[in-house]
């Protein structure tokens, strides 16, 4: 279980004692079965040392279900490492309340548990609780707690205290503390430089110089800095406010970009950009278009992009975004005009393209070429064009919508959605306002309309609250794509409990690949397979073969074979061999060998089965 072992090691403090001298005349390894039996007897007899040893043996073999009760006995006997191990296991399973409970059983006396508890609370958004436990763990001697606690102090701008604590952790050998301290010092030095340059521009009353003094703040390489140290967001906002006060309309937009990181200040940010537009900054219209698109406001986005393009001889990326909006709505002739208005249409099919069709231009230019190629592909594929039958049904649905209520409005919106008339569909979905209509609206805007996923979550929530498994799954998927594994896991669990197969599949994969917990994974794969999904049926069957449950594995692997899963025939053969049905096993090996010779080579010898040459 390498993944589980890694997670446990990451939660432990580094050992202070030197490695022991190697045993030059070691005892022969005991028989594994005999050793397991000995530890089981000792643990059952109530010997505290045996609790942990037996739990470690079972965990190492991937038998975590059997190990957990013995870890619990060890923890109840006062073993802090056991408490931490239990917490990690439950956290990996998405059982966050249980993880917190086990961390708390020893956090007051063990730095490792204090560290794990602090991280758990921080991931849940409880920064104050995290700070408390990092401080407590640091007092217990945990250098990791000292480092992470210092980072939280720096995140809210307590720079001097944070640097002192990082210096302490660095002196104790923590490389992360050393690197973090150096990064913060460089960051503060840069901050002083920006302040000084801005002060000079303020003294001269030069708006352009004021803006240029802060240009490096928007360097993409600094995004991680702002994510890790929110105080720097406030510092940047204040600097741009000063530059705007000198008269820089551009600075108003960049100030708004930092304000917009806080969803509660969205209206404030938008007002600043609108003010910059009124002051004559052409780029403000483009930013407003991007924001409208991310929020699913398609008509507003198109209006702002057109405004940006009309100003100052055209805006290449406003033209590009208009082209993409039109592609999504299957306004293909118009889309092509906007994309060619960027001036890069000559690159399509031009000489100088490489073997993969790429020319000597940058990634941004390549996006334009790909969009033009997508238009050609859509025109060539009737399945990607608006279906004629829905166009024919539209007048009748419109008539019923004008006379009816939410159901008729939603039906009309659905037809418009199928016809790629997205702005009109959005209006009718919003008018209907039912959980089903809002869910359809959220999916349309997120999957087709170009909206940002996290901003669409409120459209999915009403349906999820009513028990819609697909809506819960979609919310999990959005958070997973945004990098928030904890929230994703919570929503995937809700979806799986409501019967969503892909959510159960995700939970199984997470347990096995990220958590090293094959037993928990197998249960989720089985649940996923019940929904008719072939890959998790294979994964569940393979897991059962590996643990010798051949009878349970056979029906699942047959499902996978019927679904033409490329590896299933080999593992079905292994299950049949385990059941003593050698002739059947050989027949499935022939199937595997004939269809997938390259795949079979990776498995090596066929575990003692004779496999005649299929040729």
TrEMBL record:
Report the protein name in the record. Answer: Tetratricopeptide repeat protein
Recorded hits in InterPro entries, A to Z, give:
Sel1-like (IPR006597), Sel1_AlgK (IPR050767), TPR-4 (IPR011717)
Q: Where is this region: Disordered?
A: 1-36
State the coiled-coil residue ranges.
Answer: none
| A UniProt-annotated Pfam family | TPR_16
| Species of origin | Streptomyces niphimycinicus
Composition bias of kind Acidic residues appears in 13-34
């Amino acid at each position: 279980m390498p993944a589980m072992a890694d997670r446990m090691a990451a939660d432990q403090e580094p050992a202070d004692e030197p490695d022991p001298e190697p045993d030059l005349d070691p005892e022969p390894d005991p028989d594994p079965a005999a050793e397991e039996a000995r530890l089981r007897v000792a643990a059952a007899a109530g010997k505290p040392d045996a609790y942990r040893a037996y739990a470690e043996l079972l965990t190492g073999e991937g038998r975590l279900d059997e190990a957990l009760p013995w870890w619990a006995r060890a923890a109840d006997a006062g073993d802090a490492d056991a408490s931490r191990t239990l917490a990690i296991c439950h956290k990996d399973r998405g059982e966050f309340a249980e993880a917190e409970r086990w961390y708390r059983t020893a956090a007051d006396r063990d730095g490792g548990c204090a560290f794990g508890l602090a991280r758990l609370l921080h991931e849940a958004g409880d920064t104050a609780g995290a700070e408390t436990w990092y401080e407590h763990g640091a007092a217990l001697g945990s250098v990791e707690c000292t480092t992470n606690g210092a980072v939280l102090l720096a995140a809210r701008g307590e720079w001097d205290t944070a640097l002192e604590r990082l210096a302490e952790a660095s002196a104790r050998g923590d490389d992360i503390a050393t690197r973090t301290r150096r990064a913060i010092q460089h960051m503060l030095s840069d901050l002083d430089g920006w302040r000084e340059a801005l002060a000079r521009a303020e003294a001269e009353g030069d708006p352009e110089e004021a803006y240029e003094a802060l240009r490096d703040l928007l360097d993409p390489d600094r995004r991680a800095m702002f994510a890790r140290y929110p105080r720097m967001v406030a510092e940047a906002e204040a600097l741009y406010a000063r530059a705007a006060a000198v008269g820089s309309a551009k600075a108003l937009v960049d100030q708004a970009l930092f304000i917009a990181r806080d969803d509660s200040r969205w209206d404030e940010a938008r007002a600043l950009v609108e003010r910059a537009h009124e002051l004559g900054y052409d780029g403000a219209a483009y930013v407003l278009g991007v924001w409208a698109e991310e929020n699913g406001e398609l008509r507003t986005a198109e209006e702002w992009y057109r405004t940006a393009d009309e100003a100052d001889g055209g805006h290449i990326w406003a033209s590009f975004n208009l082209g993409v909006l039109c592609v999504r709505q299957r306004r293909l002739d118009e889309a092509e005009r906007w994309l060619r208005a960027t001036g890069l249409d000559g690159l399509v099919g031009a000489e100088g393209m490489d073997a993969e069709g790429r020319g000597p231009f940058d990634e941004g230019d390549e996006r334009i070429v790909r969009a033009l190629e997508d238009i050609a592909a859509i025109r060539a594929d009737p399945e990607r064009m608006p279906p004629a039958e829905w166009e024919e049904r539209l007048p009748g649905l419109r008539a019923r919508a004008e006379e009816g209520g939410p159901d008729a409005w939603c039906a009309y919106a659905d037809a418009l959605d199928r016809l790629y008339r997205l702005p009109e569909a959005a209006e009718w979905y919003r008018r209907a306002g039912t959980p089903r209509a809002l869910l359809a609206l959220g999916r349309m805007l997120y999957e087709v309309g170009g909206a940002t996923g996290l901003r669409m979550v409120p459209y999915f929530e009403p349906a999820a609250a009513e028990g819609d498994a697909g809506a819960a799954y979609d919310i999990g998927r959005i958070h997973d794509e945004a990098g928030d594994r904890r929230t994703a896991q919570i929503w995937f669990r809700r979806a799986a409990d409501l019967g969503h197969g892909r959510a159960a599949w995700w939970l199984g994969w997470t347990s096995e690949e990220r958590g090293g917990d094959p037993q928990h994974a197998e249960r989720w794969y089985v649940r996923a397979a019940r929904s008719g999904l072939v890959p998790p049926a294979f994964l569940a069957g393979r897991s059962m073969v590996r643990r010798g449950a051949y009878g349970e594995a056979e029906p699942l692997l047959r499902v996978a074979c019927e679904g033409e899963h490329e590896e299933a025939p080999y593992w079905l053969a292994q299950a049949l061999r385990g059941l003593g049905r050698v002739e059947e096993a050989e027949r499935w090996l022939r199937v595997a060998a004939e269809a997938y010779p390259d795949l079979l080579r990776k498995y090596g010898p066929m575990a003692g089965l004779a496999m005649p040459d299929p040729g």
